Automatic annotation (TrEMBL):
Signal peptide: none annotated. The chain crosses the membrane at residues 69-89, 153-170. GO terms for biological process: ubiquinone biosynthetic process. It comes from Aquipseudomonas campi. It holds the Pfam family COQ7. It comes from the Bacteria. One of its GO terms (molecular function) is metal ion binding. InterPro entries: Ferritin-like_SF, Ubq_synth_Coq7. This is Demethoxyubiquinone hydroxylase family protein. Keywords: Iron, Membrane, Metal-binding, Monooxygenase, Oxidoreductase, Transmembrane, Transmembrane helix, Ubiquinone biosynthesis.
Length: 173
């Protein structure tokens, strides 16, 4: 695979991942408005970040005349499902979901940055620009009961394996 193809693949996976994040937060906000209103402001701030990340990757893909991921509808559906289940389970489940997603994403971003730094400055900048936001999402989630303790173990296991699987699949699609 050429370097350019790999760069496109990285941008495509991140673009799809942001789609999933938007879907998770949108669903969690809809439910939290009724059940856990105190979670809403932080979730709304995260959603605004994810929307702007999504636009960043969309424009990077467009600049390269590269297509988006075929699995976008799956990210939408998967995100909404995770968002729905965790929001119904309560604030701790919401923040466990965020923490599990964001820590998987954060690790993945580090690998991408390492590759992009040597191969594509513009793509590196795009990924670097979202890194701090994702880290702040992770930190907020950990500070609000989302840490991987025993009570949250199952949510962590399910959400982080779903995230890893979706990343893996999107690299193929
Ligand atoms: Fe994001
Ligand atoms: Fe995020």
């Amino acid at each position: 695979m050429t370097t350019q193809k790999e760069v496109e693949r990285i941008l495509r996976v991140d673009h799809a991942g942001e789609r999933g994040a938007i879907s998770i937060y949108t669903t969690q906000i809809a439910i939290s408005r009724r059940l856990w209103p105190s979670c809403v402001p932080a979730l709304e701030e995260m959603l605004a970040h994810e929307k702007s990340h999504y636009r960043t990757f969309e424009s990077e893909l467009r600049k390269r005349h590269a297509r988006t991921c075929y699995a976008l509808p799956l990210w939408n559906l998967g995100g909404a499902t995770l968002g729905l289940i965790t929001a119904l389970l309560g604030p701790k489940a919401i923040w466990s979901c965020t923490a599990a997603v964001e820590s998987t994403v954060y690790k993945h971003l580090q690998e991408q940055l390492h590759f992009l730094e040597q191969h594509d400055q513009a793509a590196w900048l795009a990924v670097k620009a979202i890194e701090a936001d994702e880290k702040s999402h992770l930190e907020h989630a950990l500070d609000n009961g989302g840490e991987p303790v025993r009570a949250n173990w199952l949510i962590w296991a399910v959400v982080s394996s779903c995230t890893s699987m979706a990343i893996w699949l999107s690299r193929k699609l």
